[in-house]
Specification:
By secondary structure, the protein is mainly α. It is globular, with a radius of gyration of 16 Å. It contains four helices and no strands.
Amino acid sequence: MKFEDIASLDDAKNILQEAVLLPLLAPDLFIGIRRPWSGVLMFGPPGTGKTLLAKAVATQGKTSFFNITAASIASKYRGESERLVRVRKVFI
């Protein structure tokens, strides 16, 4: 999955390239006062391309992408959520 595979969403693609990909591919440019962003929050209704954008960032940045839901790691018992996160991390 690459950014070229995603139709439209040009503003979001440009922001993700600036915030995530450039610091990954050229870390020597982002030191001192030009440090990279702390993070990017993508929100919106289902079907707007959030997951596709994240997959494209992971592919072009040569990193891993884990698609998990809050329901798969949440538990009402104390300490159970932490155990589920550790277990999922091993099997993914």
